[in-house]
Specification:
The structure holds two protein chains of two kinds. Chain A is mostly helical. Chain A is built from 20 helices and no strands. The longest helix of chain A is centred in the N-terminal third of the chain and has 27 residues. Chain A is elongated and about 85 Å long. Chain B has five helices and six strands, in the order βααββββαβαα. The chains are: A mainly alpha, B alpha+beta.
């Protein structure tokens, strides 16, 4: 095998193991930077050894053993140094004095639990949501800083800064990379789900730029969601979020036309919806509902399922959707939910109902400069036959959106009003 | 990217030989690992080709051929659907698979054509036909 190919093989194996490796090392060292260094050391060792010895039977255990041996060697050297500088040693944490046997015993920890601990730590509420997303993509998704920057349409130094700050926040908070228990767990889980959905939406809704969707980011969020569902199979909201992402992603390729233009849900070619993802999404929703799932993600998944189940746009059960929005408002009240409810009600009960509901919320500060609001209002007015008013709303919406594809769509709707 | 991994048939699988208890267990653990990594999105085993049918097309004629089919090495005994970042990752996972058969065997990895690949070759006429078909399927 050529050297380049061997390296690629080893790097592919390393990528599979990386998140679990980092998780174990972070739990072991309580230090993300140190964990990343040790993981990198282990990769270098593999690149040296494996071309000769072949990929070991259990590469994950091999990498972990190499990295932990190095961590322990470093600590031995450090403690020898410390004996020479006893006064310095007293200032160090107790953790740094743990005897080697204790450290070795810690190696037998459950790996799944460690990965979950890493996810919970990267998504800690002490860290700003976008920084959480960047750190999660880096540590759990294995993306490079450059890849994350591309995904978020940011500059690399910005993302690097975000990651540094996120790591510092984790260090300052003294997090131990454990899975939270008891009452804390629910709040922390909400933060994890928020981050995964933020990553998904950044790909799905593509708030800025030329591309309507960035499927790689969606795929990454789906993978995180699947991993989380594997680690926490009995959490209805984890399954709810997974279902929501699978169902929304099933429509990814139908959302843009051959020329890249935005295609709204009701006009999509449903033959292009990904039936495998729809089946997976509906199955996850069934499990979530069987577990009593009625949280914000399970309800949103139920909403997405209404669309997935309709073979044609006019078969959509808009009354059920409107009723689900009523429930979602109770669980997760937000002006955006109210706006979507207005859209659903306009479809179920006519554009006049939609206009009445949208007038109730159009003064809210949170919806000021929010392009979907005038876009929806324009649609209601259009369907009510009030074309000049509709045109005006589409014009406002086109001026507000930052996405080029969406703007083209709105301008086309504007033209259709004359 | 989505990849379909075919488990190629062998004499054993074609005779409907049951996998050993050890293999069933090892395969279960492997599938669990794939699921926990968010890689496996589907998959199934297939019955021997003796229970399968083929339809041969030639111009207007359609001929049904009953199984079993002769060229065992070309037959499929099962498949997975994986979602991976690239073929390197798919290969790394495939190498971890326990040998699915008692004797020598083979996995075949084939990337799935994505809808986007399809869209690039879609002519306006093609798009129109698909849209029409879709409307008819929906009973409009």
């Amino acid at each position: 095998m050529a050297a380049g190919e061997t390296h690629r093989t080893i790097e592919a194996v390393f990528r599979i193991e990386r998140a679990r490796l980092l998780a174990g090392l972070a739990r072991f060292t309580h230090d993300v930077d140190r964990a990343e260094e040790l993981a990198q050391d282990a990769l270098l060792a593999a690149l040296t050894d494996w071309p000769e010895s072949g990929v070991p039977h259990n590469p994950g255990a091999w990498l972990m053993a190499v990295a932990k041996r190095r961590a322990i060697d470093a600590r031995r050297r450090q403690s020898m140094l410390e004996r020479k500088h006893a006064e310095m040693a007293r200032e160090l944490d107790d953790a740094n004095h743990a005897p080697i046997e204790v450290l070795e015993a810690a190696m037998d920890d459950d790996l799944g639990d460690e990965l979950l601990g890493l996810i919970f730590t990267a998504c800690h509420p002490a860290v700003y949501p976008h920084a959480r997303a960047a750190l999660t993509l880096r540590l759990v998704g294995g993306l490079t800083t450059a890849e994350i920057a591309r995904a978020f349409l940011s500059r690399e130094p910005t993302i690097a800064q975000r990651i540094v700050r996120a790591k510092k926040a984790i260090g300052d908070a003294g997090l131990t990379f454990e899975v939270p228990r008891g009452r804390e767990r629910a709040a922390r889980l909400a933060s994890v789900l928020e981050v995964i959905y933020l990553i998904f939406n950044e790909g799905y809704a593509a708030t800025a730029g030329e591309d309507l969707v960035r499927p790689a980011l969606c795929a990454e969020a789906q993978r995180l969601g699947r991993i989380l569902a594997g680690l926490m199979p009995d959490e209805p909201e984890v399954l709810g979020l997974l279902s929501l992402m699978e169902l929304q992603a099933s429509r990814l390729s139908a959302r843009s036309g051959p020329d890249g233009a935005f295609v709204p849900l009701t006009e999509q070619n449903r033959a292009r919806w990904d039936q495998l993802l729809i089946r997976r999404g509906l199955a996850a929703l069934d499990r979530a509902e069987a577990l009593g799932g009625a949280g914000r993600y399970a309800l949103q998944a139920a909403l997405a399922a209404c669309h997935a189940r309709a073979r044609a746009a006019q078969d959509t059960d808009w009354r059920r959707i409107a009723a689900l929005y009523d429930r979602l408002r109770e669980v997760a009240p937000s002006p955006v939910v109210d706006l979507n409810r207005a859209v659903a009600c306009s479809m179920a009960y006519g554009p006049e109902v939609g206009l009445r509901l949208i007038d109730e919320i159009s003064g809210l500060a949170a919806l000021r400069n929010y392009a979907p609001l005038p876009a929806a209002k324009g649609d209601f007015l259009f369907r009510a036959g009030r074309l000049p008013e509709a045109k005006h709303q589409f014009e406002i919406a086109a001026g507000l959106t930052r996405n080029a594809r969406e703007r083209a769509f709105l301008l086309a709707r504007m033209e259709a009003c004359t | 990217m989505r990849v379909i991994v075919f488990v190629k048939a062998t004499e054993d699988s074609e005779q409907g030989a049951m996998p050993s208890a050890e293999l069933i267990e090892a395969m279960g653990r492997y599938n669990e690992e794939l699921i926990n990594a968010g890689v496996m999105v589907g998959g199934d085993g297939l019955k021997p080709s003796a229970e399968g049918k083929r339809i041969a097309f030639d111009g207007a004629s359609r001929t049904v051929i009953d199984g079993p089919f002769a060229e065992t090495r070309e037959l499929v005994a099962g498949f997975w659907i994986w979602e991976v970042k690239d073929m390197d990752e798919a290969l790394a996972w495939a190498k971890r698979c326990p040998n699915p058969m008692p004797g020598p065997s083979e996995l075949e990895l084939r990337p799935v054509v994505s809808m986007d690949d399809f869209a690039e070759n879609m002519t306006p006429e093609g798009a129109e036909i698909h849209a029409r078909n879709e409307q008819r399927l929906a009973g409009e």
